[in-house]
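Posting for a labmate who doesn't have an account.
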Amino acid sequence: MANLASSSQRLALIVAACAACALPIEARAAMALCEPSLAGETSEDRDELQAKKGALASWVARAGRYGEPYTRWGIAWNRRLDCTRTDGGLYRCTAIGHPCTIRQMPEEKVTPLRRGTSGATP
């Protein structure tokens, strides 16, 4: 009889566990929140690497107006670093992109950007 009680207790535990599994689970995911595209000041230097560093530093400084989490060039949306060589032998570079941050809990009324879109509003 002890085995029968054990079996029914086990069955009750299994049913309770399955009922807990059927409860809805709130899904959470990190997502990028991006601001409008901005360009840093153009940087010129005889050394291309220095011109790029200057352009990126300017972009990071401007992106900082949205807060420190938005200053990461590596996660900027549609980022690009445009460099040209002038007739005088200088490199002229400009950094352009949407400053973004990663948030675990997205804010209300956020429109996520999809790959391949510019993020420009119509």
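Reply:
Got it, the structure tokens are right above this. The first helix runs from residue 2 to 21.
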